Amino acid sequence: MRQALEGSQAIARAVALCRPGVVAAYPITPQTHIVEGISKLVADGVMDCELVSVESEFSAASVALGAAAAGSRAYTASSSQGIMLMSEVLYNIAGLRVPMVLTCANRAVGAPLSIWNDQQDSMAVRDAGWIQLYCADNQEAVDTTIQAFRIAEATELPVMVCVDGFVLTHTMEPIDLPDQDVVDAFLPPYHFARMLDPARPISLGTLVDPAWFTEARHSHHHALLKALPVIEQVDRDWQAATGRAAGGLLEVIGPADAPTAILCLGSVASTFTEVLEDHPPDDPVKLIKLRAFRPFPAEALRAACIGVKTLIVLERALSPGLGGIVAVEVQAILATVPDAPAVHGFAAGLGGRDMPVELLPDLLAAARAGRPGEFTIADVQLSKLPEEDR
Amino acid sequence: MLEIRIHGRGGQGNVVAAYLLAGAAFEVGRHCQAFPAFGAERRGAPVTAFVRIADCPIRRRNQVRTPAFLIIQDDSLLHVPGVLDGLLPGGGVLVNSTESSESLSARLGVATASIPATTLSTEVLGRPMPNVALLAAFLTATGALPHDALDKALAHRFKGDVLERNRALMARAEASVPAGLWSIDISERETHAAGA
């Protein structure tokens, strides 16, 4: 049913529709409203679930890991420093191939301390071996949350659903929450083949010596690559069930033959979609909305870039001392393509800086003026800095 | 598309005001969007919230820079630089103040209406919570949404005595501004969305 809901409340309701057995809760801005919402649903008897209030994010991830390994659908949510604190456990969850879902309400990572939105937190754990899906609006956040449980359980991989903190989590907008019977038909009861069971003892998390570690990593890497068609199929199935897709691996918006493309992740894609539709630039531009960042949809990206001369990669994070994170990956993926587009990397919207509609024409102008392969922080105000830092 | 910016201080229900206004728009079949821009997370700190109301889906997620209307929950914020920035020509400012509309309009140089929302809410709710009074006055002054839309949005959030007191507050606030002071048409998208 369509309702006007705050993003966090909608995500909490979407989690409830998936009937998790265990939710681990630890508050951190801007994620807090999600676990608060779940806590209320449990208290109100709407959700039949073990809500575990823990003392840190490390424990939140550990509780979810244990619960999922013991045969319960498990969920938690966090942001920023919380994701950093759970990073050791995040690697373990993925390496143990335990399926669970975590919402990352994307927030900058300190220092300097910031409670506001960028995507440095999820980017910092991109190599943990989780599937990462980025959402452009709260409808996608709801739909992706539900899809995430099915993807996780089909692939035996954990899924991180990335939603921009405040920009999505604290935004009220009309959202269609699917009916329980639709979700029940879409998402089968939790099944984990390697479930910890006293009747069938196995060990999870044992020491792996050099004779097997490489093979374990190979398997994990290939499990992620094999998740690519699963992510696509689950989105197609969701579309069949609800009439709505959530963006597959990536989505191309705008004229397919546009010579200029802008690739971005998260909610800025929503703003840019409006700008391109309402005020199309004189020279055609298309948007490449990257939903799956891990696994990286290399083939889909190459296909989306056919005929593209200039590719602008916009990200809300950076690797200090190198530049772009996504931009460098995109360049590597396109390196083997004949007539590969010139890639221009930009970061913007760091630590909650607003990304206005004018950012799009500004990026187009900066790419025209810049050199291919360059990385620039598009919205830095150098006049604020001492001369030597500019 | 109609863009509105709400300025207040932490603890005055700024985000609730934005959500109520968006929720009211949703009740009459409009598309809506509301979100806050928090500063420091403490009572008394300036807080800004944004509301968009439109006849088509709203996809832009940037902050409202060129609002058609400003709702100011605390008149001490009129001294804060930037509060009136970007107000569209022909737009209006609704302020919680005991100073008269004429005096404020002359002082600020923009069309301003005032209601004593703190006084009204203290009398009716028993505490200084200006948000619902300002929303009711805003809808009366602009005709942007019918009275019943806000009533329904309130009924989603409040129950029992709190709901009834807020309804009484709405009635008091509606009587304290001229109806149709700033009439608007939400479908005039370009008029109110010059940002692009």
Question: Brief overview, please?
Answer:
With 390 residues, chain A is an alpha/beta fold. Chain A is 38% helix and 18% strand.
Describe the protein's architecture and organization.
The complex is a heterodimer of chains A (about 400) and B (about 200). Chain A is an alpha/beta fold. Chain A contains 13 helices and 15 strands. Chain A has two domains: about 1-240, Thiamin diphosphate (ThDP)-binding fold, Pyr/PP domains (Rossmann fold), CATH 3.40.50; about 250-390, Rossmann fold, CATH 3.40.50. In chain A, strand 14 (about 340-345), helix 13 (about 360-370) and strand 15 (about 375) form a beta-alpha-beta unit. Chain A is globular, with a radius of gyration of 21 Å. The model of chain A has no long low-confidence stretch (mean pLDDT about 95). Chain B is of the alpha/beta class. Chain B is built from seven helices and six strands, in the order βαββββαβααααα. In chain B, helix 1 (about 15-25) crosses helix 5 (about 145-155) and helix 3 runs antiparallel to helix 6. Mean pLDDT of chain B is about 90; it is low at about 190-195. At the A-B interface, strand 1, strand 8 and helix 10 of A face helix 1 and strand 2 of B.
